[in-house]
Amino acid sequence: MSEPIIEVRHLSKSFGTHVVLRDVDFTVKPGDVTCVIGASGSGKSTLLRCINLLET
């Protein structure tokens, strides 16, 4: 079993009182193909921005 290349645990993000990500957990291992899908405004871009350290 290989070590994860991305591991996210308990990620939460809000803008003021509006919570856009709540307690998100996931792991990506080498060779995995992962898609982030969801409705418009569901937090997909915010999740990616948090992973890339563009959001704090």
Automatic annotation (TrEMBL):
Compartmental location: Cell membrane
Keywords: ATP-binding, Cell membrane, Membrane, Nucleotide-binding, Transport
Transmembrane domains' residue ranges: none
InterPro entries from the UniProt entry: ABC_transporter-like_ATP-bd (IPR003439), MetN_ABC_transporter-like (IPR050086), P-loop_NTPase (IPR027417)
Statement: the UniProt record of this protein carries the keyword Transcription regulation: no
Membrane topology term: Peripheral membrane protein
Similarity annotation: Belongs to the ABC transporter superfamily.
Name of the protein described by the UniProt record: ATP-binding cassette domain-containing protein
Species: Candidatus Faecalibacterium intestinigallinarum
Lineage, uppermost ranks: Bacteria, Bacillati, Bacillota, Clostridia, Eubacteriales
